[in-house]
Amino acid sequence: MTTQATGAVDEAVRARPATALRPYVARYSGYRQRGLAPAVHHGLPSPYLTFILTLDEPLVVARHPDPAQPPGSYPTVLGGLHTSPALITHEGAQSGVQIAVHPLAARALFGLPAGELAGLDVPAEEVLGRLAAELRERLQAAGDWAQRFTLLDGALLRAARPSGSVPAEVGWAWRALRRSGGGLPVAELARETGWSARHLQARFRRETGLTPKAAARVIRFDRARHLLAAGSPPPRLAELAVRCGYFDQAHLAREFRALAGAAPSAWLAAEGPEAAKFRNVQGGTAGAGPEWEA
């Protein structure tokens, strides 16, 4: 989308990957912004790994989920699951493609379990080698978003290789948590897998980067923020809390402050559908910007 009055560009395009790639990748999100005001964006915890290939300016991370990791600029970035927000800035221009990767696909696509990326953001070249830079160059040369997404389909399918096996019990537990919206207790997951709670926690964390309890928390929050952003008008917070499995509205508010860095109403005003300063596709809105689902 180009604003004629100002010449500003604010684009966001989403696409599903090729059918054969869907066990690994949930979606592609292309974004391009030009001529906008400088902005700050809170990158939220989600159930996907983040893989971003920028097209022009590098992605500037002012604060990582792990506060011990120093700020940096990234032409490409690969990020693990986390439970605290990142802080991303731009000076009015940014563009790139974000790939939302299923955490249990990390072995096949990246050759390592997602647990090795937990809470981290690293240049994708550190994991994928020259392939990351080459893929970025090909995306830069492509003529439009459709061509870029087709390039990604081919490259990621060629890159996918079996690299160790994810235990079936962990796969089952992850899928059960996703289906329940984060509503299953760890004791029930352990009982169904036949493992002890301690063993399940250790194996689950190695493969995903989170314990089952932390994963349930992120999944529940991810559902709540999408429902909050998609509503017109937004749902009442008390009703949203019940729908998403929180004890009450106060519990929902505490989780938003911890995982999003703001209360639900403040987050919605700053980064929801009506926000003008940085409308982001992570919240399910129409504006551009990286989803940052690291």
Walk me through this protein's architecture:
The protein is globular and about 55 Å long. It folds into 2 domains: about 170 residues, Jelly Rolls; about 100 residues, Orthogonal Bundle (Arc Repressor Mutant, subunit A). A hairpin with an 8-residue loop joins strand 6 and strand 7. It has about 290 residues and is of the alpha+beta class. The protein has 11 helices and 11 strands.
Produce a short descriptive summary.
By secondary structure, this protein is of the alpha+beta class.
Let me know the average pLDDT.
Answer: 90
Proportion of beta-strand residues: 15-25%
User: Residue share in helices?
Assistant: 25-40%
Number of domains: 2
Counting copies of identical and different chains, the oligomeric state is single chain
> Judging by the overall fold, what is the CATH architecture of the largest domain?
Sandwich
> Could you give a short account of the major beta sheet?
7 strands, antiparallel
CATH superfamily of the largest domain: Jelly Rolls
| Widest sheet: strand ordering | 1-2-3-10-5-8-11
- Shape verdict: globular
- The structural class is alpha+beta
**CATH secondary-structure class of the largest domain:** Mainly Beta
Total strand count, please?
11
User: Mind telling me the C-alpha Rg?
Assistant: 19 Å
Low-confidence stretches: 274-288
Number of discrete helical segments: 11
The succession of helices and strands, N to C, reads EEEEEEEEEEHEHHHHHHHHHH
The CATH topology of the largest domain is given as: Jelly Rolls
Distance, first to last CA: 26 Å
